[in-house]
């Protein structure tokens, strides 16, 4: 067989597979075939071996088959190429221009400094003559490098492009699925899921659509996610069995995701030794319990050698935990960590622990304090393969909360910050609420004072050994993955921020727009880009304006957490109160006269938050109970601020809807229609929020709107 025939054969091997992005059951999200046009029109040489190298080969082959390019895998003859994707330790090729490109990549690495290593996931991109080279130490690096080239489009082939090196700031970039295997009578198939059913489970069984799981892995890898947990942190009987009898179901998911470099983790029940093992106790210090976890974990690794580890919600909202046995969270976490350690696994132990049977009459108990009170004293006691996973705020994924003080209180512990991509409290994927700016604010917060280390630094840790970033996922079996097509951007943004927590969220959004609505397939690309930015950039602040004011939180309907319910949680056991009366509103969390929560911060912020005079406006009611006439730093009174922001919020949503209408006929009609429907609902719901909040506070305070607008 001559060289040309061999090339044809190599190409044929790959074009027979179905094209990604062609499956009519599912929207291609940010990886439509068109996004691969630039890559697919090139001559590409791939060099190296491994499962993920095969994935890269498949991706490139499909793109080339579609757009007329060519691909060679480690050819033993000379070829002209535009792009080389090579493992650094793969042998020399008899191809001078390819070797020159590789040498340019190596030289770039030396020039960029830092020891010249790229690690398990990094890559370098450099130009040599007419060739772009992407080099990596390991196959995952090549996969991430490939998606980088896709994002860059033609810019990846710009002769003037300077060399660049990329490595993820965080080792673990993880999504948690709150998917139930068996449909929960209240929470359904996916707890806090707003995108249909689960992509993994259906009515007590695996869903069996592994092609979709694989497609999901592809989307995640392309934005940088490398780990997922596949079942809800609230572990019921059926879900507990995933650890033992039903481990095969987890293994199938792991097999589908492995080609995209994604490791699978499992939420487990702390009571598993009793529930599944028939032991009389789950006491973490009991020898039989330790042996049970060790043996069970060994069996997990026999079946799934690259298994990531366990995720645990213990002693929280009714889940079992070490408190039953008079032990603490370090005892509990270390038990599982010990079982995982020989296999390289980690335990993610959640810090979301509080009293969910609080008496609303008791003002001395403060849910915001709980995680710190439980966990800060345990600093230094966790094994090195424990990651304490801390919700970003002290309460519960609200639209606005201060950053959790736990993140500054455990220097001797690996900490991960937990975000919520699923929009439980931020519009439930019926409202446009782009969360990138909020997450960036959280990650950029400097708990020890301005200019000091940030939350991004904490979760990165020394030599990237921190706990990383975790988020509750927002996808389901919906045609658009996320219910609201624009909520795909939140998932994408999470992945990109987890890769680099210091990136500008607007730039990330821009990247998402370019991929999802490729300019080459759009009649007026500038209009589409501009309109999406206008709708999405500030949408989190818009959402904040028409919902609970000034950081006070909640005010949602109890149970489903959608829509306004100002007093919905006021007299409940959940510890989520606003204390509005005829004189004022807010929670006194100062040290001087309140719950003392402000004192959980390092001195700079403890002092800032302590006084209503220095507390930032947006958090005023989180930290203080103030009269309606209290004057904010903005110059407005609290009551007038409430009225103004609520009127403004609805106007902004109405404007969003108008702007969206300018895209009629410009984009995929099914996307257009779905977003249009949801914007109608957003306008309706925002109006309801405005009227209920304004009316509530007008009735409480008796203070009229100084602009005389309609309040009921
Ligand atoms: C999985 C909130 C949600 C619960 C969720 C819990 C958690 O309270 O409303 O549905 O349970 O957080 O994070 O564990």
TrEMBL record:
Residues 166-481 form the Glycosyl hydrolase family 67 catalytic domain. The lineage of its organism: Bacteria, Bacillati, Actinomycetota, Actinomycetes, Micromonosporales. Pfam families: Glyco_hydro_67C, Glyco_hydro_67M. This is Alpha-glucuronidase. Residues 482-709 form the Glycosyl hydrolase family 67 C-terminal domain. Belongs to the glycosyl hydrolase 67 family. The keyword Hydrolase applies. The keyword Protein transport does not apply. Keywords: Carbohydrate metabolism, Glycosidase, Hydrolase, Polysaccharide degradation, Xylan degradation. Transmembrane segments: none annotated. PANTHER family: ALPHA-GLUCURONIDASE A.
């Amino acid at each position: 067989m001559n060289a040309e025939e061999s090339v044809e054969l190599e190409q044929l091997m790959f074009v027979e597979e179905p094209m990604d992005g062609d499956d009519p059951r599912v929207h291609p999200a940010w990886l439509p075939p068109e996004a691969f046009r630039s890559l697919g029109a090139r001559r590409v040489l791939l060099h190296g071996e491994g499962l993920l190298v095969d994935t890269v080969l498949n991706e490139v082959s499909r793109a080339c088959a579609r757009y007329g390019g060519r691909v060679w895998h480690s050819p033993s003859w000379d070829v002209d190429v535009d792009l080389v994707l090579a493992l650094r330790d793969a042998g020399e090729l008899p191809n001078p221009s390819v070797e020159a490109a590789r040498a340019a990549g190596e030289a770039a690495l030396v020039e960029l400094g830092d020891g010249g290593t790229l690690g398990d996931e990094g890559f370098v991109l450099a130009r040599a003559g007419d060739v772009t080279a992407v080099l990596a130490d390991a196959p995952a690096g090549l996969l991430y490098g490939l998606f980088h080239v896709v994002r860059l489009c033609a810019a990846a082939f710009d002769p003037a492009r300077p060399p660049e090196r990329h490595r993820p700031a965080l080792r673990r970039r993880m999504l948690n699925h709150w998917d139930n295997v068996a449909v929960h009578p209240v929470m359904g198939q996916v707890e806090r899921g707003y995108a249909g059913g689960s992509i993994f489970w259906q009515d007590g069984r695996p869903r069996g659509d592994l092609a979709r799981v694989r497609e999901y892995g592809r989307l995640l890898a392309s934005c940088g996610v490398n780990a997922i947990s596949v079942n809800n942190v609230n572990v019921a009987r059926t879900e507990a069995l995933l650890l033992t009898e039903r481990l095969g179901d987890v293994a199938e998911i792991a097999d589908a995701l492995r080609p995209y470099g994604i490791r699978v983790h499992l939420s487990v029940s702390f009571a598993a030794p009793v529930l599944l093992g028939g032991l009389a106790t789950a006491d973490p210090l009991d020898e039989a319990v330790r042996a049970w976890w060790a043996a069970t974990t060994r069996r997990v690794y026999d079946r799934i050698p690259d298994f990531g580890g366990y995720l645990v919600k213990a002693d929280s909202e009714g889940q079992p935990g070490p408190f039953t046995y008079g032990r603490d969270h370090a005892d509990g976490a270390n038990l599982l960590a010990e079982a995982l350690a020989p296999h390289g696994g980690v335990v993610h132990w959640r810090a979301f622990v509080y009293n969910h049977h609080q008496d609303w009459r008791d003002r001395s108990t403060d849910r915001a304090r709980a995680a710190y009170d439980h966990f800060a004293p345990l600093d230094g006691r966790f094994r090195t393969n424990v990651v304490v996973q801390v919700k970003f705020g002290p309460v519960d994924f609200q639209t606005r909360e201060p950053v959790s003080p736990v993140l500054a209180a455990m220097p001797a512990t690996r900490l991960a910050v937990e975000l919520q991509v699923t929009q439980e409290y931020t519009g439930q994927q019926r409202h446009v609420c782009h969360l990138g700016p909020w997450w960036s604010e959280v990650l950029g917060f400097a708990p020890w004072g301005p200019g000091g280390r940030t939350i991004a630094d904490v979760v990165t840790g020394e030599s990237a050994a921190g706990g990383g970033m975790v988020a509750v996922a927002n996808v389901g079996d919906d045609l658009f993955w996320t219910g609201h097509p624009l909520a795909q951007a939140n998932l994408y943004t999470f992945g990109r921020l987890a890769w680099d927590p210091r990136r500008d969220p607007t730039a990330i959004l821009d990247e998402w727009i370019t991929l999802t609505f490729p300019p080459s397939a759009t009649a007026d690309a500038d209009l589409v880009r501009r309109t999406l930015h206008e709708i999405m950039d500030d949408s989190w602040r818009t959402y904040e304006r028409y919902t609970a004011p000034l950081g006070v939180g909640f005010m949602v309907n109890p149970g489903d957490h959608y829509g306004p319910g100002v007093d919905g949680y006021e007299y409940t056991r959940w510890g989520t109160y606003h204390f509005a009366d005829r004189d004022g509103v807010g929670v006194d969390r100062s040290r001087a006269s309140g719950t003392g929560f402000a004192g959980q911060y390092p001195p700079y912020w403890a002092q800032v938050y302590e006084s209503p005079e220095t507390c930032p406006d947006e958090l005023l009611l989180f930290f203080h109970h103030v009269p309606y006439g209290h004057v904010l730093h903005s110059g407005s009174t609290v009551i007038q601020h409430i009225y103004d922001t609520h009127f403004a919020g609805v106007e902004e949503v109405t404007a969003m809807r108008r702007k969206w209408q300018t895209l009629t006929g410009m984009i995929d009609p099914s996307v257009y229609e779905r977003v249009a429907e949801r914007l109608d609902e957003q306008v309706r719901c925002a109006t309801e929020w405005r009227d209920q909040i304004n009316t509530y506070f007008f009735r409480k305070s008796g203070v009229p709107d100084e602009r005389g607008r309609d309040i009921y």
